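Thread: Newbie trying to understand structure tokens

Hi all, I'm a second-year student working on a class project, and my supervisor (Dr. K.) asked me to get a predicted structure for one chain before our next meeting. I've only ever worked with sequences, so writing a 3D structure as a token string is new to me. If someone could post the tokens and maybe explain what I'm looking at, I'd be very grateful. Here's the chain:
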Amino acid sequence: MKELFPERYSVLLIGPPGVGKHEFCVDMAHYFLEKGEKVVFLTTERSPEDVENRSKTMGRDLSSLSEGLYYVDCYSWCLGRAPRAEGASKRNVLRITSPENLNEIIVKIEKVINVAGGRVRLILHSLSPLFLHNDDREVIKFMQLLVTRIREEGSFILAAIQEGVHSPSIVNTLTYLMDGVVQMRFYEDERLERQIRAHHLKDISVDSGWKTFTVDEKGFNIEEE
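---
Reply by user tm_fold:
Sure, no problem. This is what the structure looks like when written as tokens:
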């Protein structure tokens, strides 16, 4: 599926907690890094250390590709960690003082874009905590700015959101802002499965049928029929 996403493109990833959105984001980041792209991983639900530890267990070791990887860390503030001085992290971690400061997040992402020389691949997991700390309208405005900025640079953005947490109006607005939507779900027949589909991708012909996926030491794997 990741081969479908073009440049100047934005995708919203929707699914219930625990279904595998984080693993999909890690797989996407690894894919772009292996291609020599610059990746910004904006993390709100795990620390950068946790992201990298998880990536190793699924055969997508992000630390081995750290030269092109930047973290904008919106999680560690809740652990009482002070923001690091700029340039102090060998792994390019820029910590945010509070998720309430959406402008600070924009500034840090802009800094990475400038350092990277323009085009980056932005992975955001996930938007949901930002809604807990900010007015809904402010987060929507934040996403509008991000999507516009990424498109200007000929880049790509994947933003995850938790299903069942937000009002339908918020999900509909985000769907309107983005070029495409990818959905995940738990499906129980004879056994419990996890499934994924491209609900729609603007200007791209795509099979919208549900496909089973697994996550193991070999990565994020979508089963072919």
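A couple of things are worth pointing out once you decode it. Residues 136-152 form the longest helix (17 residues). The chain has one domain: 2-222. Feel free to ask follow-ups in this thread.
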